Every structure is written in structure tokens, then in C-alpha cells.
Amino acid sequence: MDPAPATPRWNLERPYLTGRFHQTAAAAQAPGSKPFSLDSFSRGAGASTGSVIGSFAASVQELLVIDDLLSALVGIEGRYISIKRVRGKEGYVVFQIDSSMDLALQERTREIFPLCEDYVLVSQFVESRSHFKNGLVNHALAAALRAFLLDYQAMVAQLEHQFRLGRLSLQGLWFFCQRMTSSLNALAVLVEKATSNNTSGSATLNLLQSQAKAMGGDSAVRSLLEKMTEYASAAYLRMLERWVYEGVIDDPYGEFFIAENKSLQKESLTQDYDAKYWQQRYSLKEGIPSFLTNVAAIILTTGKYLNVMRECGHNVQVSLENSKLMSFGSNHQYLECIKSAYDFASGELLTLMKDKYDLIGKLRSLKRYLLLDQGDFLVHFMDIAREELTKKPEEISAEKLQSLLDIALRSTAAASDPTHEELICCVERSSLLKKLATLKDLDCACPADKLAAADVDQSMQLSITGLETFCLSNKVQWPLSLVISRKALTKYQLIFRLLFHCKHVSRQLCSAWQIQQVFRSVKILGTPILRSSILCRSMLKFVNSLLHYLTFEVLEPNWHLMHDRLQTARSIDEVIQIHDFFLQKCLKECLLLSPELLVKVEKLKALCLQYATSIQLLMPSIEVTNSENKSKSGKSRSRTNKSQDRDQQLKLTSENVIMSESILKFEAAFNSELQSLAPTLSNSSHAEPYLTHLAQCILGVRIDQ
């Protein structure tokens, strides 16, 4: 907000132009001296004689006091009526009469003094509130009061004319002033409260409305105050119109109830996890006008929607036909205008997001790649990037991974999808559990220190590589970043990392299983090889069941539910809410918000990886030669001799003590962890029904059994 222009010095230094001279003169006069007035020039003869009004006859006194009262009615001292400033109250004055005047005339004169004092008070308010710094609402109110005072001064001029014609008595003057007394007194009360509270903007409008309601018994005064409210609100209405019809804050003096924080930029949505752009770029201030309290949120949202479209280069303005905000009347027509503006802005922005920026298509792309709805590219990528992903996170080249990802995408069905070019490779520096511990707003059911402790235990068993920290990201442009913010993308990445690691564990177990297939010719039951095959099948069942649960029991149903709700959404805020609810529900049902269960699942996966690695190291790699590849030279040995050698080698391998002990250790550890998962699921399933489906998928049993 730009600083208000300074008030010209002449407006402060030349009091005769502003009606402030009586205060200046009263303050500057010497004690006991005659009060200064303009009449000292025009009526100097009378003043210089030193005569007191009591020395004249009563009829003459009446004429003299009427002459002074006509001046006092417009804030000017007379020969026998003086003005005294009230100490400690700026703008407050009292009128005093010469004590030698006839008592009856004094009483009647004092009955008119409140009107004179109210005029001075209102006049001073008009002058002081006309300064730039007081804001547009006070300027408008001061202009309305000035117009009222012009009517009042016209009345005084008419009374003076009647006095010059000899047709006005003191009683008649008092009678004709009655019409203005109640109105001017109500305005004086108003400006007194406005001055003492130093109101501006919304506070002034609220004061006007409350004063009008308080005058319910006097229809004329109430009508006057309502008229003042209408005039004062005109400037506020123009600010409101520009906001709800154009999305522009035109508020040079900081009176509007919506504030703009220009330090928050839209680029933060894609960079900062805790970005508050949408919530705090425009926000409600204190001091909302009472008649707008119930629709303040709608007004704020309407302008925000128009702002988004304007920043997209989509110039749109609400049609003003039959929608111009004229006044805050009792017919509530202004509420209908605001509601119409909101409906228009909301529908226009939603159409823009869905049609021009293809919001639904972008969400489908995230589902396809980050939720692994289309997994053929991932299989190819994991094959060609295996060497790079087995390195430590700090040793991995993100550029190389990006190149390999591009190759994988162009070699699969994803090549026909233009959105695949928006995928970005990322390598985190911490495990999934540590990442969850750093995100404080995910509402985890377990403290971060427990997550970190569990992760330390796991890292002692298995070193972290790119396979545990790799994830995908996506380029999101404005205005889609309102829905798919950095926070939303982070949640997608958490789910991706869980799925990706499960896929990796499954591939490793499949490799171990393939190695064991060459031992089928061993007919000795009870050997470690047979136990290893059974254990491998159990581990594969666990990992594949977990993947099935995550994909078909959690992600797929929740996605379709979100998609159906988005079709009926009526505003972008509703879209954001639906999308955030989808992500939160997926995180919860994927166990990412249940650290106790997630830690157990991670331990089971770690056991599976260690088992698969051990099998590949302990079991010899035996190359079985097919009959099609026999050498035609005849130098190779016969098939019978080769088969006998192989059987002998296999039997030696099955008797390997180290392998036997390792398999038994893995079997015991895996079965123990798997069995400990059942009571944990059972205890939590009453509060979280989705755990019943998880138990059925992983353990093959019903919780209630």
C-alpha cells in the first residue's frame, strides 16, 4: 500500500478557510480578554463602547441575541455569545452567554446552544476527515456530512433573511431550529464516536449501521443515517466491485478487508513443501463489515479465482448487467450479486483448468507413472538401470538415470504418451522411514523418533542404495500447481517409493527362485534346497500379495472414487479438497501413516532381500547346456557323463553347512515377523477396517477368525 499524500500546509495554516479559526482564536487569546471574532471588524463600534447587554431593554436584548445566535449557528462568535474550547477534547466547544442578559432570554438561548455545538463538532469532523490519510470511506462520509451542512447553512441563511425583514423572534428561531436539532444531534453523536475510536474503512461503516439501528424510534433520523451509510459505502462498494468482478485490490488506504501478501509467489507451489500461496497470498483481515461477515469467504474466493485466470493470461470479467453493486440495502440484492460473481468465477476457472490445462489428463499421467498403473516401462528401466541403482545415493548420477528412463519410456508403450516427457528422476538421500519422520504434517500415529530408531536398526541389516531412495517426479505448470503442489507430489512420491521397492524385492525373489529351479533333479526330501524353495514361495506370496493389496485394494478403488467426484466438483477449492483427500486416504491405507505396521513390513522386505542375495551368493551358478547347443565337433563329453557330474555337484551343494544354517535362520526370522504381524493387524482393524483386507491379502486369513 502506497503512503497517503500529505495534506497541503495551507489547509492547516489558514484556519479561516476551514472553520477552525474559533478554536485558534480561543486558544490564542489572553486570559480575561475579549474573545476574538469576525464581528470585531463588522461590529467594532458596539464592542468598543463596553456596553453590556443587560443595559438594554428586553426587546432590544432579544434582537441582539438573535443576531449573535445566527452567527453562533454556523460556529462564529458574536458580541455577547462566546466560544470556549473544552480542554482535553479536540474539536469540542461550549457556547456562553453574557450573564447580564434577561433570564428568560438566557434560558431560551441556552436551548439553542446544543445545536450550535453539534454544528461545530460535525464541521470539525468534516474538515479533519477530508485529509488523505483518513481513507476513502471517511472522505465519502465527510462529503455527505458537508452536503447536509450546506442544507443546514441554507436554513440559517433563510432565518437571517427573515430576521432582516423583522419577522423573526427568539421563540420563532427556536421553533424553526427544531427540525434540524435531532438530525444534527444524531450526527454529532456519530462523529463523536468515530473521532474517539479513530474509525476508518469497515469500522466506520459498522458504526454507521449500528447508529442507524439504534434510531429505530425516529424514522427521520434513521433515514438520514441510512443515507449517510449509503454515501459512505459507495467508495467501499467500488473496491468490492473491482475485487469480485476483476480480482483486483484497489485499496490505496488499506481499508478493504482483504489483504495481499506480495512476498508469496506462485512459483513456491512447485518448490516449497510448506507453500502457503493459495491460503495466504490473499487473506481476510480483521474488521470485516458486519453486513459482509456471512459472505466474506465467498468474496475472498471469488477474487482469488479471477486472479488465477488473470495470471494465466485469460482475461475475464464478470458481466455487470443487472449485477452492479449499488448499495447494502435491506433487500439483500448485493448478496445475490456476490453469489452470481462467485458462481461465474468458479465455473470459468474450473472450465479453464479442465479444458485448456487438462487437469484430469495430468492426474491420469500421475497415476500411470507415479502410481505404476502402467508398469512395462518400469520393468525395462529396472533392467537397464540396475548397475546405477545399486550404488549409494550420493554416488548415483541423476543425469544418467534420466537418460536411461528416457530410453525405457521410448522403448515401451509409454512412447505414445506425450506426458512421459514431463517425468523427472530423483534420488533421495534418506530411506522411506526417515523421509516420513521429517514430514510433520502427515498425521502419523507414531512419533518421529520411533521411526528414526526403527530405520537405524534396519540400516544396520541392509545398506541404503538407489533402489531404496529412487523416485520419480513430474513437471507441473501453473495453474495446475494449485492442485498438484509440491506437497501433493511428495505424497505421490512416497507411494511410488513403496511400490518401486516392493517391485524390486519381487524381482530379486524371482531371480532366487530361478536359480533354485536347476536343483529340481535332486530327489532327496528334507534337504535345505527343498526348504529354501518353500521359503522362497512364501516370501514371493507375501510380496506379491502386498503389491496386489496396494494396487487393487487401495489405489485403484480410491482413484475411481476421486475421478467420479471430480466430475461433479463445482469449484477449484473443491477439486483441491477431493485430490488431497484421495492422497491422504491412499497414504493411510498404504500403511505410510501407520509406522508400527510399516516398520514390520519393511523388516519383512529386508529379510526377503537378504535371503535373495544369500541364495545368489551361496548357491553355485550351474550352466545347463541344452541339446541344441551341443558342439558339433564331437570333443564334448556324452550327455550321460555330464548329467552324472551335475547331480554330484548338486548333492555337494545341498550338503553345504553354511547354506543350511542360513536358510534355517531366514525361515525362522521370516515366519516370526509374519506371525507377529497378525496380532498387530487384529488390534488395529477395529478402528481401521481396511486392515482386514490387508490381512486377507498377506496372511490369507480373516481378522475375526
Automatic annotation (TrEMBL):
UniProt KW Cell cycle keyword: no
Domain of life according to the entry: Eukaryota
Signal peptide: none
InterPro entries: GCP, GCP_C, GCP_C_sf, GCP_N
UniProt keyword Zinc, yes or no: no
Gamma tubulin complex component protein N-terminal domain location: 66-356
Location(s) in or outside the cell: Cytoplasm, Cytoskeleton, Microtubule organizing center
Region Disordered, residue ranges: 627-648
Pfam families, alphabetized: GCP_C_terminal, GCP_N_terminal
Residue ranges constituting the Gamma tubulin complex component C-terminal domain according to the UniProt record: 359-694
Chief place of localization: cytoplasm
Keywords, ordered alphabetically: Cytoplasm, Cytoskeleton, Microtubule
Cellular component GO terms, alphabetical: microtubule; microtubule organizing center
Cited function: Component of the gamma-tubulin ring complex (gTuRC) which mediates microtubule nucleation.
UniProt similarity note: Belongs to the TUBGCP family.
Protein name: Gamma-tubulin complex component
Organism: Urochloa decumbens
